[in-house]
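Changelog-adjacent note: as of this version, every example in the card shows the full chain rather than a window. The one below runs 107 residues end to end.
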Amino acid sequence: NDYYSIELTDEPTFVSIQTESWVHGSPLNPCLTLVETPAGEIEDPTRVCTHDTEGKFDSQIEFTSTEAGSYIIKLDGTDSTQGGQPFWYVLDVRTEAASESDTGPAE
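Full-length structure tokens:
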């Protein structure tokens, strides 16, 4: 299991995180999980192992932050034996300021 911390200072922020393993020839079938936000640990996090297309086993999660601070992402494989040097990947993280329509009306 690998963990990454993303520090978001501007709120709200749209975040897109995608793995790139299969595209680079890695046998890793990755999963991504948002496990913690600035509000604390997520009690029942959703593990995302979805794929863009059949035969491409890279995963992607997207969310809009609700507050500034650290967001913790967990990356692991669908099979607990997937780890170590033969299972390489690239983690692509993109952020951009969220528009008002992304977060709903101001109150």
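Structural remarks: Confidence is low (pLDDT under 50) at residues 103-107.
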